[in-house]
Design a protein that fits this description.
Blueprint lengths: L2 H44 L3 H14 L4 H12 L8 H16 L4 E22 L4 E3 L1 E3 L11 E8 L2 H6 L9 E4 L10 H6 L1 H12 L4 E5 L25 E4 L1 H12 L4 E23 L4 E11 L9 H19 L7 E8 L7 H9 L7 E6 L7 E7 L5 H11 L5 E2 L8 H8 L4 E6 L4 H4 L12 H21 L7 H4 L4
Parallel strand pairs: 4-5, 5-6, 6-7, 9-10, 9-11, 12-13
Antiparallel strand pairs: 1-2, 1-8, 3-7, 4-8, 8-10, 12-14
Helix pairs in contact: 1-11, 2-14, 3-9, 9-14, 10-12
């Protein structure tokens, strides 16, 4: 090629290069515009209409001065009191709840029956015997076996944790009582409970395998008083392997100090009643929807409680919160598009029996359950809002979270568990949300005689009602689809 040819070729190449750059720039601009337009359109889809936004705000305003929910839990805990699963008291609570819900004029009220194994304590005591004789404050754990008449007497063997008990030599506990002295610590989200509660479910079984005759655990709680926390040993409501009880924190400390001075023998005396079958049930109320009435937004709580307190925080408060929220929506001038179903689950404390019964009885319509949530963590202020939606529904989650921001609720992640009862629905594919309550002091009272109505802060309770009313109405009225795709559901629990 001649020099002139090189010049011409070079000039031509430069012009083509500049032209291609311009084409790419224009294409990039067009793509960017398309992305922005698409994103804008998607964001607009997730925006609340002015009418829905205004109604949501009105619900929030009304909830912050509402008395229905708070009155519900006050009346339940005062007129019924403790509601042990499968007991005549739980049966009385179902009748009471049905009457209360009918008086609130819900569109539908009913009870869905099922049966459970029944356990109840008849007596319980523990006493150090010998030269340092003294009483210890205990409470039997749900599912504990009875001791022989007059109790059983045996030497105490202390372990720092359930893991240490598991690591003990086989038969090292022959004829002795295992004592697990593992502490529980306060957390805002209750994470400490999941770690500490393992000793409650595991102690009796492991001790029995090693020849033990009974099991004592440091109470699964965070308060310093001589007030031990009860709770079930299994999720099947069945009898455990051994007699088992929780020691109050101060009594656990006392026992540890005594053991530091030498061997300690304790007389443990526990009496129980047990039956293979007892009646229970789920109490249901509905605000019937309009054009999408076959689709269900479920908000729930559990009606049963342990027998020591009056079950105000666990879970009378939760029932008051969801009933109060649903009543506010029911009183709106027009019906929501979707049906709002309030479920007061029975027999949660002894094994999620109500949750599993509901899933069985409504298995054919779970695909019509568009959202579920429960209140079962006391009545502390809701501080964050978690979702568990499909990827395409994240903008809807963001819209809900934005509506709750004025209530002091921060944005949580998309990994909500839903709670114990609703977790059963989540595992069946139902989208769930978790309004995260501040549980910093929840385990001071949980499963103790101190779980009473006076522990509820009315202002914080009403903030809960406002949150539940807001997201429930948004889910019912918008018609948004929160469900995960089939591909997203693969491998999820």
């Amino acid at each position: 090629m001649s020099q002139g040819g090189h010049v011409v070729w070079r000039l031509t190449f430069q012009r083509e290069t500049r032209r291609m750059k311009q084409v790419r720039q224009i294409a990039g601009i067009l793509v960017g515009v398309a992305v922005l337009v698409g994103a804008s359109a998607h964001a607009q889809e997730a925006e609340l209409s002015p009418d829905i936004a205004a109604t949501t705000q009105q619900l929030i305003d009304d909830a912050l001065s509402d008395e229905v929910g708070l009155q519900f839990v006050e009346d339940l805990t005062t007129e019924v009191g403790a509601r042990l699963a499968g007991s005549p008291d739980e049966a009385r609570a179902r009748v009471w709840a049905m009457n209360a819900l009918k008086e609130l004029n819900f569109d539908v009220t009913r009870v869905e029956d099922f049966t459970i194994p029944y356990w109840a304590r008849t007596h319980e005591s523990a006493r150090v015997v010998g030269p340092n004789a003294q009483d210890l404050v205990i409470t039997a754990l749900g599912g504990s076996r009875a001791t022989p008449d007059g109790g059983l007497e045996a030497e105490i063997v202390r372990f720092d944790s359930l893991s240490d008990l598991k690591a003990a030599d086989a038969a090292s506990l022959a004829g002795k009582i295992a004592f697990i002295d593992e502490h529980m610590y306060k957390t805002q989200n209750g994470a400490g409970y999941g770690l500490a509660v393992r000793k409650r479910s595991g102690c009796a079984n492991v001790a029995a395998e090693k020849g033990g005759v009974a099991c004592l655990i440091r109470s699964v709680g965070t308060q310093p008083h001589r007030m031990p926390h009860t709770g079930g040993m299994s999720r099947e409501g069945a009898l455990g392997a051994l007699p088992a009880a929780a020691l109050s924190g101060p009594d656990a400390d006392q026992l540890t100090r005594l053991l530091a001075r030498g061997p300690v023998r304790v007389n443990l005396n526990i009496g129980v009643e047990y039956a293979d079958s007892a009646p229970s049930g789920n109490v249901i109320a509905e605000v019937e929807g309009s054009d999408l009435k076959d689709e269900i937004v479920l908000i729930g709580c559990h009606l049963d409680s342990w027998d020591l307190g009056t079950g105000a925080l666990d879970d009378g408060a939760g029932c008051g919160i969801v009933v109060g929220a649903a009543k506010l929506i029911a009183d709106l001038p027009g019906k929501p598009r979707r049906t709002i179903r309030v479920v007061l689950y029975g027999s949660e404390e002894v094994g999620l029996f109500g949750a599993n019964a509901y899933a069985r009885q409504h298995g054919d319509t779970l695909d019509k359950h568009v959202l579920a949530a429960e209140s079962d963590f006391g009545a502390g202020r809701i501080w964050r809002f978690q979702t568990n939606f499909g990827d395409a529904a994240i903008p809807y989650a963001d819209a809900m979270k934005s509506a709750l921001t004025p209530l002091g609720v921060s944005e949580g992640d998309n990994a909500a568990g839903g709670g114990p009862d609703v977790g059963v629905l989540r595992r069946a594919g139902v989208p769930v949300v978790t309004p995260g309550q501040d549980g910093s002091d929840y385990f001071d009272y949980h499963h103790t005689p101190d779980d009473t109505f006076d522990k509820i802060d009315p202002e914080e309770f009403r903030q809960n009602v406002a949150v539940y009313a807001a997201f429930t109405y948004i889910a019912a009225e918008t018609g948004w689809d929160f469900r995960k795709s089939d591909a997203e559901s693969v491998g999820s629990d």
